[in-house]
Amino acid sequence: MDKNLAKNYDPKAFEDRIYKEWEESGAFHADRDPAKKPFTIVMPPPNITGQLHMGHALDHILQDVLIRWKRLEGLDALWLPGSDHASIATEVKVADKIREEEGKTKEDLGREEFLKRAWEWKRIYGGRITQQCRKLGDSCDWRRERFTMDEGCNRAVTRFFVQLYRKGLIYKGSRIINWCPSCGTSISDAEVEHQDVNGKYYYIRYPGEDGGPGVVVATSRPETMFGDVAIAVHPSDERYKELVGKNVVLPLVGKAIPVLTDPYPDPEKGTGAVKITPAHDANDFEVGQRQSLEAPCCINDDATMNQLAGKYEGMDRYACRKAWLADLEAAGYLVKVEDVAIPVGSCYRCGTVIEPMLSEQWFVAMEELAKPAIEAVRKGDLVLVPERFEKIYLHWLEGIRDWCVSRQLWWGHRIPAYYCQDCGEMMVEETAPEACSSCGSSRVVQDEDVLDTWFSSALWPFSTLGWPEETEDLKYFYPTDVLVTGYDIIFFWVVRMVFSALEVTGEVPYKYVYVHGLVRDAEGRKMSKSLGNGVDPLDVIDQYGVDALRFMLTTGISPGNDLRFKTDRLESSRNFANKLWNASRFVLMNLMDKEGNFLPLAGSDQGVEELPLKEEDKWILARVNETVKNATANMDAFDLALGAQKVWELIWNEYCDWYIELVKGRLYGADEADKAVVRRVLLATLKDMLRLLHPFMPFITEEIWSHLPERRGYLIRDSWPCYKESRRYPEEVAGLETAMDIIRSIRNIRAEAGAVSGKKLHAAIVAEGEELRRARAGERYIRELANVEALRFADREAGGPAPDREEEAMSAVVGTTEIFIPLAELVDYKAEAERLQKEKDRLSGEVKRISGTLSNEAFVSKAPAKVVEAEREKLEKCRETLEKVEERLAAVLEKLD
Asked: Which helix (H) or strand (E) segment is 357 a member of?
């Protein structure tokens, strides 16, 4: 291997190679070292149907930053990877593949054959996303990779279900559930996406059975009227006092239904009278339970109407609505239509409007399970970062309804409930019973439904470590330390993991939940296929390298907030990597002789402060030391972006732009002992900076590290730098930074005056007291880096010699220190006069040309008005600029006289 880095930074040349070396060397392994404290993160398992997107990239990079940092801090850091079986998404993918390739449905194949196809699909495609995760630099312990339907997870899911059932916390019953007609299954409340849409209230009259006017009811879903069983009014609503206890007639259908009182109707809403359809509305279901009403269902699972709808049977629900309303209007029952905003729930996966339906399903009773999960946050056992998400977490848990966990699918964890076909006995067992526990019959069949995907995901932090067995991994790595997740799945997953873990282990599954936002496009829109604004992380990596992507994402995000994806920030991150590469290459060149052998180094990295250091050496050691302290504090507070920014400032602004420039003269000098000191300081500080940057940009830091002398193995397994009181050097820092401020001011004056960069200047500095002492102490740096050949100091207190008069000099102020540079030093008047004369001639010619064009009547009459106006504006600007140039030329010529 070449001892120095390649001339140009090319991440493609080493990223894949380095990752392979890490993985093959066991750099990611966590081995239950009793001498170390554990640190554990379980990866939120991506769906096996998934394709890496920018949201994955952000989520995984944040986790990897934390795990690499803790590994460097000396902890036994485990990042446990895995993937999710994704019941609905996978079943749809496999069913679509079978239909496209064989023209068959899953029912044509049967359950057993379909599941064979699903497992085969998982084998072929399921590992795709984990391979893509490796491109991000994920330093997971891949030996431990898990799958939510592997044997261990399946055993955990079955044990948990049976335990909850035996405690009365899981039950089977008929309740209103969210039904997705497209996916053909129930979904939980958390899987319903709610939004207000432009809808209508239809005011429909139900005539009295006695021939009276009856009652008018407002509804947004008239197609559900075929399942009406009553009209409810509030007991205090005087308008309907005479109607209560009587019957009204379902229009056109002819079915008589009672008018009754119930606390549910709001007299101020609509007409105050509410139709009660227990099978198609959660609130109506509760009324039905209180009033002992029947609950007939009028809509099929595929969202078509059933036999209760009469002539509309078989029609889609919305087609039925249209036809039904037309018939009601024709018969005089449609009183009016009102435009309103209607809350609509849609399936999170396919976007289909869900249909609330009464169905026999399995439910988790949430009231008792929610209590300890609420208490965990209130007591501080579980901390959400940022804190504002604790309110959302608590609000959701405090109002939680029972969780419907059964799904009408084949791919997933099959519910461990068994039914006797002879006596109807239901048995819930961990292993399939051979015979009925009641009658002894062997005709026993298992429940057809599978469990909600989130039921198995809820066990992820402990099932992946061996539960229900008391494994050594579980005892060592559990509870885990941090969960990194987007705010969009707090309800789907975070809450469920917490109450499940508390129920099973008695402990919270992790101490911290680090909540991040979403990656949006440059305009702040959510990335989506429909908008076509998604960005493929693999394309970004191919163009910029993964370190640029990682640094852009980590520096652009703050806890809980969204991030806008901007290409210019990617380019800035790439430029930073390039700057580090070139600086490291410069250091390596100066650590070696012409033959490529490393030159002697003074002392050691650990004892560098014992060397004969100059002021600039102490300054850079202090700045690295302070960055170690600040960046570590930022990381501890989960402010990864600020920590990364501190490291960027250290490397770019202080090491590259200042320290390297400050020591170049010493490196090229004749004092060999001093050169050995400079080499040691350059190397020691570079190593610490690589350690600090490694969690954010692991590939470039590892590649540079591999070329350094005195290294110990891979950087990924090295150690995080520690803050040392012995490297503070406050006096030297203050002195050198005073000189730096003066240098910056002189450079700014030079730039403002347009002076030639190489021109040596004369300068005067006026200060007093400590500031004057520091300015004088920095004279060597000011002369070298500001290119000043004559430097005069004046003591304001002592009334020293005054500098050039202010009107003849340009000046700047740093604190109470004044800096003056004579104008004559800044400007070569003869050269400036020649330049201004050329500019005057050019502008005069341009004014003449444009004036001629505008005086041409043919041009003015035929050219588009916008073109003519643009020429006029251009002429005006040229005249204004010419006037200023003439004024400046006159002033310069006056100086030459």
From this structure: strand 355-364
